[in-house]
């Protein structure tokens, strides 16, 4: 039986600060923290994925629209404290696995697939920001890589609520299972993954 892993995408200072006008970030971070604690208690590996670029931007191509925007804004540099995990994630355990990405998807150009295969993971549970960015790209790529996918709808967030609703209501169910964090934590507490 394949193992399950919880992927927590881009819960960084800069992203959470950017969501404050669209989301109760305190409640979001509290729910996310509770889910991470429940995952650890159930023996589910937690993988914290963040995005940043070398200070020289050698890995942010100007041909890539996102890369060009990052360069123009002088943002997302590895040395910038804004790219750190949000302070609410300061309880990250030594057992949590850290992955740094340079693109939107958690898979592209990272060692995430090697980590998942090494752990025997065939099912990934996804939480994080933004629903229309890292979550969408990671879900689509994971589906193409034949992973079983669960998206925790209440633990994915986007500055555009209507876009979030379309993705969790219409697109993600075509790639995997969409459920609440409460449903998933109840499931793993009873021995399911």
TrEMBL record:
Record Gene3D superfamilies: Isochorismatase-like
GO-annotated molecular function: hydrolase activity
Coiled coil start-end: none
Record keywords: Hydrolase
Pfam families documented for this protein: Isochorismatase
InterPro entries given in the database record: Isochorismatase-like_dom (IPR000868), Isochorismatase-like_hydrls (IPR050272), Isochorismatase-like_sf (IPR036380)
Domain Isochorismatase-like: 4-183
Top-level taxon in the UniProt lineage: Eukaryota
Family: Belongs to the isochorismatase family.
Protein name: Uu.00g046760.m01.CDS01
């Amino acid at each position: 039986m394949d193992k399950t892993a919880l992927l927590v995408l881009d819960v960084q200072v800069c992203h959470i600060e950017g969501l404050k006008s669209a989301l109760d970030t305190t409640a979001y971070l509290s729910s996310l923290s509770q889910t991470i604690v429940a995952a650890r208690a159930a023996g589910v590996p937690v993988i914290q994925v963040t995005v940043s670029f070398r200070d020289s931007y050698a890995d942010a191509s100007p041909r890539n629209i996102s890369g060009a925007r990052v360069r123009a804004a002088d943002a997302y540099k590895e040395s910038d404290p804004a790219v750190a995990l949000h302070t609410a994630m300061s309880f990250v355990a030594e057992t949590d696995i850290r992955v740094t990405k340079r693109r939107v998807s958690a898979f592209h150009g990272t060692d995430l697939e090697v980590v998942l295969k090494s752990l025997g993971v065939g099912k990934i549970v996804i939480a994080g920001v933004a629903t229309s960015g890292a979550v969408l790209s990671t879900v689509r790529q994971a589906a193409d890589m034949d992973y079983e996918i669960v998206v925790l709808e209440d633990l994915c967030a986007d500055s555009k609520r209507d876009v979030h609703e379309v993705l969790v209501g219409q697109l993600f169910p075509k790639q995997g299972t969409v459920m609440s964090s409460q449903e998933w934590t109840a499931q793993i507490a009873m021995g399911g993954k």
